[in-house]
């Protein structure tokens, strides 16, 4: 009876082993059939091809690569898609992308443990000269200027790539292109490592939080790219606009030469109109007539801002490029004046002047700019001579001292404190 009982349980145990073994085999086969694609980005500074571990997000990404090479038991293949940003010439960008792919391959091979005996022929290089698709994708999500739709329209057009560059450079007097170069192009200079492997039981793999799991498709490198910029703050629903700037010439202020000016940006901020007013009106000494410094002058200046200075690192500073950078100007002014210094100098008259200006404006604080400028041109000064009475109560005209001075040369030098007025408005609407 005991023998029959032992035989029964032996048969049951045998079938359990068989069934368990089959289940394990099926599970193993299922695991072996699982194909995953891992991607990593290596970013490059502009015009460079060597891997810099301290650049942008490279330190974290390169550590992931090292860990992956260490813990993955089986690596079937690698594809390195290397890119250059589109701001240079196509020929140069093509060469740059090729060299970046080679440097990425070299770096990966250096990280493979010696015991792996990894065949470097499994690494395939796929350089792509200019990453236009990546540019379009970032512009759609992270571009923070008002002409976003215009930029996208150019990127989605059927124009050739060189023509697209030309059109982008023309937007907003070059400011949009400068913004793209500074804030977007660095994110397009990368080599992407794609590794296809099969998971096996016991593999010490990184978690999905550490290494992203992607589902490949025909457009995977565009649809699933993880840009460095995604760590930035989401795009604000409001924008800012500089509507005018109040100014005063510090050099004139230092000698009590009262003055102010108002500048307004016009025509997409490529141009501006400046109105300035000078009004020192002082008398002092005996009878308040011994000394006199009175000057009343008004002027207009049109300016062309040909060298923008982007300051778009944050949403609060995105519009600080208005009325900043280098400019050329054309001015005209007119006024009257009265200068007296005891009996040595006593003249009154009128003047007018016209000429050209050159200057540069830069930020010195959150809400303050500093502007440097010089002007040169022609000036006509009509003057009449006088002699004051002994008690300075009256002036006596001296016709023999009358005349007109003509002058060609430097006319003004200014160090100007600028207070821009910036308003917020909803994108797509009015302030």
How large a portion of the residues is in β-strands, by DSSP E? Answer: 35-45%
Please tell me the total number of domains.
2
* CATH classification class of the largest domain: Mainly Beta
The biggest beta sheet reads:
8 strands, antiparallel, barrel
From the 3D structure, determine the CATH topology of the largest domain: Porin
Task: Indicate the structural class.
Answer: alpha+beta
User: How many separate helices?
Assistant: 9
> Residue share in helices?
25-40%
Radius of gyration: 37 Å
State the distance separating the first and last CA atoms. 98 Å
CATH-defined architecture of the largest domain: Beta Barrel
Structural write-up:
The chain is an alpha+beta fold. It is built from 9 helices and 13 strands. It has helices spanning 2-32, 58-71, 90-111, 132-142, 148-155, 161-170, 175-183, 220-223, 250-253, and strands at 35-43, 77-83, 123-128, 190-198, 238-249, 259-266, 271-278, 281-284, 291-307, 325-341, 345-363, 369-388, 395-426. Strands 5-6-7-9-10-11-12-13 form an 8-stranded antiparallel beta barrel. The protein has a 4-stranded mixed β-sheet with strand order 1-4-2-3. Helix 4 (132-142) runs antiparallel to helix 5. The longest helix is centred in the N-terminal third of the chain and has 31 residues, at 2-32.
